[in-house]
Amino acid sequence: MTQGALPDVVVIGAGIVGAACAHELAAHGLSVQVVDRAGIGTGTTAAGMGHLVVMDDTPAEFALSAWSRQLWLALAPRLLAKHAFVRCGTVWAAADEEEMAAARVRQHALQVQGIACSMLDAAQLHEAEPALREGLAGGMIVPDDAVVYAPSAAAWLLAQPVAGRIEMRADAQAVAIERHGVRLADGTTVAAGAVLVANGLDATALLAGLPLVPKKGHLLITDRYPGLVRHQILELGYIKSAHQSSGTSVAFNVQPRPTGQLLIGSSRQFDTTDPAVEPAVLARMLRRASQFMPGLPALNALRAWTGFRPATQDGLPLIGPALPGSSSHRSTWLAVGHEGLGVTTALGTARLIAAQMLGQAAPIDAAPYLPARLGSLDNESAPHG
Question: For 144-176, how does the pLDDT look when each residue is reduced to its tens digit (9 = 90+)?
C-alpha cells in the first residue's frame, strides 16, 4: 500500500482472531488497517486462559481446533519468552469409572485421527499431578496441547514483517459499516475494499441480528507456586459444563503459567452482561476446584476477573462472508463466535478467511463455519461451546 492509499481490508477488532487474520491477509500481500476501540488484545483475548487445545465435540470443531493447534506448534519456535508459550499438555481427570469409560472412547477417537494422547490409571494420574486428590479414577493426557499469553501474541502477529502492510489504529471504535468502509466514533470513515468483522460480541452492534450470545466466565490467578501443577488440568465434566445452554455451571480447570502462577477456572453464565465479579459464582467455582485439588484453598489468590465468550447457536464460529443484506458494504466478512476456543482456533480462522477472500483452497473444508449456515439452523437448538 502506498502512502495515502486505501487499505484492501479494514479489520475491526485487534484481539487474537483479528490480529491473526490481519497478519495472514498481509502475508498474502494485502494492505490491512486494523481498528480497535481500546488496543491490541484488550478484550476477550485478555480475559481468557490462552489455552491451545484439541476439542472434538463435533467433526468440525475437531478439524478446526486440531489444525489450528498444529499451526501454533509450528509458530512456537519463533515466539519469545514474553509470549509465554508452553507445551504443557492437558490432563483430563476422571472422577469415577463412568468418566474413565468416556475418556477411553475419546482417547481412541483422537488417536485414530492422529492426535497423540494416552490413558492414565489412578497411579499414573497421581504421578503426573501429585496435587490432585487421592481417589480419582485416572484420566487422559494430550501432551501436545499448550498455552500462550494471547495479548502479547496478538501484538507480535501485527508487528511481523510481511509482504503487505498492517496499520494499527487503537482508540478507533467502529460504529457502523457503510457502503464504502467503516465509520468510526470520531465521525471519520475508513474506506476499504473489504471489511472483516472480528470484534467478538461487539459485532452485534454493527450487524443487526447477528446471533451471538455472551457466556460470562470467571477466572482467578494465584501467587507463584512453581512446579505445583505441571500440566493444564481439566475435569472430564468440563465438556458437559461447556455445552450447558442455560443457568450457571462451573468446572475444574487449572493452568500453570511460566511465572509459576496458577490460573483457575472456570464458570459459564447466560443472560447477563454485568462484568462484575460475583462472589457466589467465584466461590462455587473454587469449591469445585478444591474437590480436585485439596490444597487449593491454602494458596494465595491475587486477582479475579470476568470475561464474555461470544457463542453461536451451534457452537461453531462464523468464518466467511456475511449474509447478503446484513451489511451495507458489499464485501463484508466475519470471523466471530469462537466462544472459548478463540485463541486455539485463531490461526486456522485466519487461514480460512484468507483462502476465501483470495479464492484459494484451504486445508480443511470451510463449509461448516460459513455464516450462510445460520439460515438453516433450528432456532430452538441450544448453543454450546
Answer: 999 999 999 999 999 999 999 999 999 999 999
Grid coordinates belonging to 186:
470520531
Report how far residue 229's alpha carbon sits from residue 112's, in angstroms, rounded to the nearest whole number: 29
Residue 190 CA to residue 259 CA, distance in Å, equals: 40
Q: State the DSSP code for 186.
A: T
Q: Residue 98: what residue type?
A: E
Q: CA nearest 47: which of 233, 213, 204, 218?
A: 218
Q: What is the 3-state secondary structure (H, E, C) of 207-231?
A: CCCCCCEEEEEEEEEEEECCCCCCC
pLDDT value of residue 375: 73
d(C-alpha 356, C-alpha 352), whole Å: 6
The angle formed by the CA atoms of residues 82, 354 and 175, to the nearest 5 degrees, is 80
Q: What Rg, from alpha-carbon coordinates, does the chain have?
A: 21
H-only helix segments in the chain? 16-27, 44-47, 59-75, 97-112, 122-128, 150-159, 237-242, 279-292, 342-358
Percent of the chain predicted with pLDDT > 90: 90
Q: Mapping DSSP to helix (H, G, I), strand (E, B) and coil, where does residue 362 land?
A: coil
Q: Which residues contact 288 (CB under 8 A, 6 or more apart)?
A: 250, 251, 252
The per-residue pLDDT for range 83-96, each reduced to its tens digit, is 999 999 999 999 99
Residue 70: all three cell numbers together: 498444529
Dihedrals phi, psi of 268, to nearest 5 degrees? -140, 130
Which pTM was predicted?
0.93
- Whether the CA torsion 247, 252, 256, 260 is positive or negative: it is positive
* Cell (9 digits) for 42: 484488550
Cα angle at 270 between 269 and 273, to 5 degrees?
95
Torsional sign, CA 74, 75, 77, 81: negative
Question: Quick one: DSSP state of residue 323?
Answer: P
The three three-digit cell numbers of residue 104, written as one number? 477411553
User: Which among 24, 136, 29, 148 has a CA at the least distance from the CA of 88?
Assistant: 148
How many CB atoms within 10 Å of residue 211? 16
Q: Do you find a cis peptide bond into 266, omega within 30 degrees of 0?
A: yes
The DSSP code sequence of 149-183 is -HHHHHHHHHHS--SSEEEEESS--EEEE-SSEEE
